[in-house]
Amino acid sequence: MSFVKASVRDAEVEGRRVLDRVDFNVPLERGRVVDDSRIRAALPTIDLLRDRGAGVILVSHLGRPEGPDPELSMKPVAVRLGELLGTEVRMAPAVVGPEVEAIAEELGPGDLLMLENSRFEPGETADDPELAAGLARLADVYVNDAFGAAHRAHATTTGVARLLPAYAGLLLEREVTELAAVRDDPTRPLRLVLGGAKVKDKIGVIQRFLEVADRIMIGGAMAYSFFKWRGTPVGNSLVDDESVEAAGRILDQSARSASELMLPVDLVLGRELAAETERREVQGVEVPDGWMGLDIGGRTAAAYAEAIREAGTVLWNGPMGAFELPPFAAGTRAIAEAIAEAPGTTVAGGGDSVAALDQFGLTDRLDWVSTGGGASLELLEGRDLPGVEALQDRQAAGSR
């Protein structure tokens, strides 16, 4: 499908200042970036803007501070970006204000300025018009390349887009194109693999794909909500009551759907969520008291992998178990390897799925790995993303 919003490729940026909303919400340890994958994902748009003679002003949130917090400053991110690009990235003392405006005005073609953490400003999450106006005073053009924040109507994603010519960055454009293709025009058969903790967070996606997918395979902690709804003992497995109700609604819908909903048939249990805990494999799905389900079993992994290898399109969101603990990583690894080997289109999203692919060294073997968690789920569900909707339409931008 074609992308209907105006692309940064079409923006006139030479000799102008561009406010580039990026998703640099990256993990920090002792003042250093420990995973720069989101920074690397934003480089193509930054390179394009600099190559075309723009001065680039970068803005992002980092964590969820309730005001200025030195531990969540963008300074380490600016340092890492500078290392990746081999150039200086100036660091602004704040997000907006006269001092920041003065620095922005000094930017020449190819220069880079990193604004401070956007969530240091209380007006960010409220889409405050005054904050948006302050951001708009810094630049001539706005680009949104932060797909991971595109489902939020914030000052940096929607407010400033109403005040400047607004374009999609290369990453955001690719994210929307790839995920919408899976949702709207997948090559069949379509397999959906869902894991993670809570059914309620993914109920919209499951309900939509029950009308679209050929098979939906459930794993991870969310499987125990389905078991509990059916009256199967779940022991100490992670379950929340809202997800149990959601699982019941999904099971009712699946009974009327042509899509096959697959649940685990065997499990790997542990006494507690720890690598050194006692481990037990069971040939069924009943979890005794004092135990918790921490991975899908071998028969389940084999059945899921076989279905994945037959797929024309595979979409994966959420691990099959506690993959970060070696005794409980086998199920998620088997699924990740099957997806990497699948002959059809392979797409993954969600932070834990991405982390699992990285852990197993398989990231580069998929066709697309999304940087968005909540944003990817909402787009797949069919909901509009405010940060995308706020951008100019391609046709309107072309008529300027």
The share of residues in helices is 25-40%
Q: How many strands?
A: 17
Helix count, DSSP H or I runs of 4 or more residues:
15
Q: What is the fold named in CATH at topology level of the largest domain?
A: Rossmann fold
Looking at CATH, the homologous superfamily of the largest domain is Phosphoglycerate kinase, N-terminal domain
Largest sheet: 6 strands, parallel
Strand content: 15-25%
Describe what you observe in this structure.
The model has no long low-confidence stretch (mean pLDDT 95). The longest helix is centred in the first third of the chain and has 15 residues, at 37-51. Helix 7 (203-209) runs parallel beside helix 13 and helix 10 (298-309) packs parallel to helix 11 (330-341). A six-stranded parallel beta sheet has the order 5-6-4-1-7-8, sandwiched between helices. The chain starts with 16 loop residues before the first strand and ends with a helix. It has two domains: 8-172, 3-Layer(aba) Sandwich (Rossmann fold); 186-381, Rossmann fold (3-Layer(aba) Sandwich). The protein has helices at residues 37-51, 75-85, 98-105, 129-136, 155-159, 170-184, 203-209, 223-229, 241-255, 298-309, 330-341, 351-360, 374-381, 386-389, 394-398; strands at residues 17-21, 28-29, 32-33, 55-59, 90-91, 112-114, 141-144, 166-168, 190-194, 215-218, 260-262, 267-270, 279-282, 292-296, 313-317, 345-349, 368-369. Helices cover 36% and strands 16% of the residues. Helix 5 links the parallel strand 7 (141-144) and strand 8. The chain is of the alpha/beta class. The chain has 15 helices and 17 strands.
